[in-house]
Design a protein that fits this description.
Elements lengths: L11 H20 L11 H8 L3 H13 L4 E2 L5 E2 L5 H22 L5 H19 L4 H18 L2 H19 L11 H20 L2 H20 L6 H4 L1
Antiparallel strand pairs: 1-2
């Protein structure tokens, strides 16, 4: 069978723009939990998905490898890392530290317009969780959290939080790996209850209440991963 020829090489400036586009799309997919741990990202499939040649995809993947969001295997395939228990616990400990801090500070800065937008976002997420499929709900969940964090922290902390989400997005996906049509009950309830508590805390300017709801939300996600029976590295090969 004859292979499909590569698209003609683009000039460096255009390729850099395409690479940035692919990078941002992959970054958002990781943050939103589109890939489960161990998922191998096929270069040609991604190039076809994004309508680009393979070069921008490879370059974007290597940027994410440098950020520890992806991993190069001995056979040169690139996959989503499989974290061990200690790494997962540390990841969530760091998230709780930074995200609760951002939530406390957001309570001092959230204005009525931002609050109304956040409530609308949660209503969208509530509706998405009633429909079959989970990708939309996970995407909206990420947008909900980052709407709070952007208001409550600087670009320095925000970039660290984003990096931690790239590593933890697949962990959120892991309990859903068997083709679940909806979020598990504990995660569904947390997304509704704890998100509403965050909104209420922001409305009152109560930073401690916002931080407590964020911590509870993260604890539910971590507990769901612990209980899902995800294979260890040695079992996944």
């Amino acid at each position: 069978m004859t292979e499909t020829p590569e698209a003609p090489e683009r000039d460096p400036a255009e390729r850099a723009t395409l690479q940035e586009h692919v990078y941002r799309k992959l970054r958002e997919a990781l943050i939103s939990g589109c890939y489960e741990p161990g998922h191998v990202l096929q270069v040609r499939a991604l190039a076809e998905q994004f309508g680009v040649s393979t070069m921008p995809v490879r370059e974007a993947q290597m940027r994410l490898v440098a950020e520890r969001a992806l991993q190069v295997l001995p056979n040169r395939a690139i996959r989503v890392p499989i974290l061990d228990d200690a790494e997962t616990e540390e990841l969530y400990a760091l998230r709780m530290l930074l995200e609760t801090r951002a939530g406390r500070q957001a309570a001092e800065r959230f204005d009525p317009a931002a609050l109304a937008a956040l409530e609308a976002l949660q209503s969208e997420m509530d509706a998405a969780m009633e429909r079959p499929g989970i990708d939309e709900a996970l995407h909206l969940n990420a947008h909900f959290h980052f709407a709070i964090y952007r208001a409550g922290t600087t670009s320095v902390s925000l970039s660290v939080i984003e990096s931690l989400w790239m590593m933890s997005g697949p962990i959120i996906r892991a309990p859903l790996r068997r083709g679940a049509a909806r979020l598990p009950g504990s995660m569904d309830k947390s997304a509704r209850t704890n998100h509403r508590l965050m909104i209420d805390g922001l409305r009152r300017g109560d930073g401690d209440a916002v931080a407590q709801a964020i911590e509870a939300d993260l604890a539910v996600a971590l507990a769901a991963f612990r209980g899902c029976g995800w294979p260890a590295e040695s079992d996944a090969s």
